[in-house]
Amino acid sequence: MSKEATIWIVIAIYAIFMVVIGVVNSKNSGGMASFTVGGRNAGAWISALSYGTAYFSAVMFIGYSGGSGWSYGLYATLVGIGNAVFGSLLAWMVLAGRTREVTRRLKIKSMPQLFEMRYQSNGMKIFSCIVIFIFLLPYSASVYKGLTSVCSILLNIDERVCMIMIAVASAVVLVLGGYMATLKADFVQGIVMMFGVAALVVMVVICPQVGGLTEGVRRMSDYMKESGMSPMSSQTALSLVATILMTSFGTWGLPQMVHKYYGIRDDREVKRGTVISTFFALLVAGGGYFIGSFSHLFCGDTLPEGGKDYIIPNMLNMAGLSNILIGIVLVLLISASVSTLSSITLTACSTVAMDLVKGKIKPKMSDSHVAMFTRVLCLVFVIGSYVVANYPTPILEMMSYSWGIISGAFLAPYAIALYWKGINRAGAWAGMLGGFLTAFVPVAISGFTTPDGPIYACLAMILSPILCVVVSKIASKMGWKSGERNDFFYTGTAEEWRAAHGYVK
Asked: Which of 37, 58, 155, 388 is deepest in the core (most CB within 10 A)?
């Protein structure tokens, strides 16, 4: 059997399985609570693996691991470790339990709803809704680009054909089954990713270009000394730290990541999910960046045609992997991409449907109609992502812009609100707008071409909490109306909110 036939058979089996999951779960996804948070009954394994698969897509494997490995050599592995410690372990410890309790008690289904209830601001809900929908588009587009570079090298198929395939797969799972379908698909995809990355690490390490673990580390260390990569310059070290912080703490403010906490069954599952999520990140992210750290042993000093996005695909092609393993690698990347795209799409579209259409334009719309409208929006979003993905912006840059703008705006107003009753509407607006502008303005001025997106993202995530605290204290001391406390968020119920406002369900 030919190489292409073997690979296509493996991919076809995976695709059929994903369709079955979507169809099976379509019967139980009629209402918005079921479609968006799965009835809030998800266990530890399914929640943790869903978080991990939304976190690590083809962007990480192709864009970040390849680009980081090329720039930082063996130091690139620190990015994966940082993702596990700060982006998974610490994120779950700090955010998961509190978020689950608040969103369950107040029946919150989206981050804009959380902002509205905490800060008593319909304007903040609308602003955050618009930011989420617009700036998750380049995020999802970067996922398309990550996968297409691999397929074009390993399968020799047109990039646009690959984009259409991944778009259709994501749309089928989402439109048919909603949240629980994505969770169950993510569980399967998470298992595939763990075994796939482990096998891939072994195969890359034993290939002739690396020559085994000890020899490979020695060769790469020697190369880094000879090329001036080690010791690192201050500029390179700053860039590395910025990448670690952005890809780790940046997840704290991403609505599609925070959304995974909403549906967890109880606190016991939160604790178990923390361990599982951390292990997954160590294996998948650590393994992915570890592979990328050997990029110069395969490519030397010359970037492959197409730039950094094509480093990992060329490494895999040069490693002499078997047809079956290449098929598994592609399924691994498709799995990661479908999971991430599904999470992004569901978050962006359910937000628009619930918080703009039902929350502002048509408040009397039934839950079943909102769920149907969300499905339609999912199709529109997938098509929009495909269009954006056809622009020539590199994966790493495209992702960093989206990551920085959204997390820069939302991280502080969200995370601080979980623990500090003193933050108020004035402070939240200051932090949200300050973070947004800090991350957005420099990259917009550059025409979205600057490679310093991670640095601006970190500046935004540092400035935003400072503004939240300082302006909150000033507003409270000056007696501004926007400086009033809102203790309801910590003790109230959804029923009390509906009685007072009559439009959030």
From this structure: 58
Sorted by sequence, the CB contacts under 8 Å of residue 122 that are 6+ apart come out as: 116, 359, 360
At 42 the three-state DSSP class reads strand
- Give the Cα separation of 437 and 460 in Å (integer): 8
Closest CA to 95 of 410, 334, 341: 410
Q: Sort 177 into a burial class: Cβ within 10 Å, 0-12 / 13-18 / 19+.
A: buried
pLDDT score for 35: 47
User: Two tokens at 98?
Assistant: 């509190």
pLDDT digits (tens, 9 = 90+) for 247-263: 999 899 999 899 889 88
Residue in 269, 251, 271 with CA at minimum distance from that of residue 259: 251
Report yes or no: 313 and 154 within 8 Å, Cβ to Cβ: yes
Supply the DSSP string of 399-467, one letter for each residue. Answer: HHHHHHHHHHHHHHHHHHHHH-TT--HHHHHHHHHHHHHHHHHHHHHTTS--TTHHHHHHHHHHHHHHH
**Rounded distance between C-alpha atoms, residue 60 and residue 169, angstroms:** 20
> The domain 3-395: what is its CATH number?
1.20.1730.10
- Cβ count within 10 A of residue 402: 25
- pTM flag (> 0.90): no
User: Residues for the chain: how many in total?
Assistant: 505
Q: In whole angstroms, what is the distance from residue 422 CA to residue 265 CA?
A: 29
pLDDT digits (tens, 9 = 90+) for 302-335: 888 877 878 888 888 888 777 777 777 777 777 7
SS3 264: strand
Distance of alpha carbon 368 from alpha carbon 499, whole angstroms:
22
Q: Can you give the pLDDT at residue 34? A: 47
One-letter amino acid at 190 equals: G
Within 10 A of 228 (CB to CB), how many other CB atoms are there?
Answer: 10
Poorest-pLDDT segment among 33-47, 146-160, 420-434: 33-47
- Residue 59 Cα distances to 94, 338, 488, angstroms: 26, 12, 40
- Residue entry with tokens 């050599």: 73
Distance (Å, rounded) from C-alpha 226 to C-alpha 282?
30
For tokens 């409208």, name the residue. 373
d(CA 111, CA 409): 12
User: What are the extents of the domains in the chain?
Assistant: 3-395
Q: What are the CA-CA distances from residue 88 to residues 95, 288, 468 (Å)?
A: 10, 16, 24
- Find which of 47-56, 309-318, 364-373, 465-474 is predicted with most confidence, using mean pLDDT: 465-474
Under 8 Å between Cβ of 271 and 109: no
Distance CA 382, CA 357 (A): 19
The beta-strand segments (E) located in 216-354 are none
